[in-house]
């Protein structure tokens, strides 16, 4: 089988694409399944630098593009257009690729809000292209095992589930501390669709809906405790500058799981530290699933413990016994590429799966704003 030829939009010298999405593609076995043939960035200078870098790493020419994605989308030497740019640019970057009949990948979120996500999923379905969304929780060994245990009846019928997640202060995004780079500062504007709810809770909701199924309704509450965010430098120390924090920083909801009828309660909070001092250690994640015949309990005190889509740093107890779980050698992003290469046999999230998560986020946001229970139509 010929390698899948990737045109990478947003693969520059920094950012998520350069640090997490592209590196696994350079390693075996993915290096035999994929080939980066083109890159597209904002400027001709950065595109040329990226093309030269990956031409050297891959020992074959990588073509540079910049600006609109129409050119890279219509390159005959590109099968799959991978997009990793800021959320407000997703729709404009994806539509030319879909129109050109190319398979597409985009980092989460799919669109800037539910409406854009629905439009993009519909466009991809109409054109008949394959889609992949960067919801890495689907590839997490931890999340996969939870899904297996629940589906196999290891704990019996699910009776209830709870999720308590912390975004500790050391995770310098949103509030109370935020990375002060120009590239990251856009996340403080909720109109850009990269909020603590859409990104942080969105990845968590992907894990919850993947393992337990979707919710039929939610009743949510939010709180806005931090009115400003203190900017930090590369050393993670405050620079003395601040920016308004315009969006709620604490979220909670109760909801009914559609498939089991069980109640799910979930909350996300920020502000506290995840210090390693033994007398001050606090959990960053507590995930409990109660069944008629047992339970699953997952805990972490790691700074990124609530980011289950990134890595496994958790204590896992199933029916009273501790279970050890090992991460993929390729990481969750690499495992997603591997599953996508399998075609119809692969286990990976599509744009339709992304719409499911977007619908949950939209319902949570509306419920908190309007003070009522909101039904979710899946």
Poorly predicted residue ranges: none
Question: Which architecture of the largest domain does the CATH hierarchy give at level 2?
Answer: 2-Layer Sandwich
Number of strands: 18
| Largest sheet: spatial strand order | 17-16-15-14-7-13-12-9-18
Portion in helices: 25-40%
Query: What is the ordering of alpha helices and beta strands?
Result: EHHEHEHEHEHEHEEHHEEEEEEEEEHHE
Gyration radius over CA: 21 Å
Name the CATH superfamily assignment of the largest domain.
Dihydrodipicolinate Reductase, domain 2
Task: Return the structural class.
Answer: alpha/beta
Which outline best applies? Answer: globular
Q: Main β-sheet: number of strands, strand sense, barrel status? A: 9 strands, mixed
What's the mean pLDDT score? 95
Summed up, the helix count is 11
Termini separation comes to 36 Å
CATH topology of the largest domain: Dihydrodipicolinate Reductase, domain 2
| Percent of sequence in beta strands | 25-35%
Please give the CATH class of the largest domain.
Answer: Alpha Beta
Number of domains: 2
